[in-house]
From TrEMBL:
GO MF term set: oxidoreductase activity
Oxidoreductase found in the keyword field: yes
Name of the protein described by the UniProt record: LLM class flavin-dependent oxidoreductase
Keyword line: Oxidoreductase
Domain Luciferase-like: 1-314
Annotated EC: 1.-.-.-
Domain of life: Bacteria
InterPro entries recorded: Bact_Lucif_Oxidored, Luciferase-like_dom, Luciferase-like_sf
Source species of the chain: Kutzneria chonburiensis
Amino acid sequence: MEFGVNFFPVVDPAEKSATQYYDESLRLTKVAETLGFEHVQTVEHYFSAYGGYSPDPVTFLAAVAAQTTRIRVATGAVIAAFTHPLKLAGKLAMLDHLSHGRLDVGFGRGFLPDEFEAFQVPMDSSKARFAETIEAVRRLWTEENVLWDGQFHQFGPVSMLPRPYQQPHPPIFVASATSAESCAAAGTAGHHLQVVPSVTSREALQENIAGYRAAYAAAGHPGAPRIQIKYTCYLSEDRSEALVAGAHYEQNYIDKMAEAIASWASTRSDAYPGYEKFIDKVRAFDFKKSLQDNKVLAGTASDIRAQLETIRGWFGDDLCVSLQFNPGAMPFSQSLNAIELFGREVMPHFTAVGALQEVR
């Protein structure tokens, strides 16, 4: 197993300024690199306290790249429907160079009606726009004189500059929330996978990951697929402190998410079947059950190790677990302590280096 750091800003200006959030997150990335974490990633959202401090992952990751030398930078994910492929391909290629080839690109469809309305993009077209944008960007990265005549964009012939640092292009990840079809399609296409266990059952996620791996293998792609799975982690030497923090900041996440998805109560889209019931699922959140079901990590280092052993048994030992250590307006000292504890007392138990040391 490998481990990365995930930044999802569920915070508003009354709780913490954008400047403070960015400064603290960048400080954590430098600590993460020192501790041996594999990647840093962040989301793309707009307008609300549910991720709104991260409207452009590329900007934040460029700052990460400038302050680090080894750790990979990952979009988790850019929303394909909101940026023209020419613009997106150029921005990401530039970041690949600024990071000297440390970029992983996660693409997502998006799911918040208010964001689609603001960008004047029909939600019903998101799936087709997603597929078209990924393919257009891939071709712009790898081909000369690209002539594109798609459903949503027409351009060319054009040759992109700069071409990516990594050849033939940066690794492409597909973010999937609940769709088995999307996971299998990602495997068939040879893309890597980003999943979030909090929004689906363990059994469904196991089936989705198994279907993805089978599709990847059946398509004959070289190498092994990469799977990133995302959790929030509340870690302390004091179990009660970690659990109190977990209950508080997970509820903060739920409250802010409920506000961001409220428009689903009056929105219907064939591209998002069942999402009109999403608000009810969010409001039914229970921290103790979420912890029991290993959808959130919380406790001492020993507790977290036990949870990760269970997760590895469920989903495989080839995962890259992407962890959020600074949710909401958590004090920086608390986040710093958690990431350092994880690096010292949890991560070595699962990494190849740590396993070798245990054998010796």
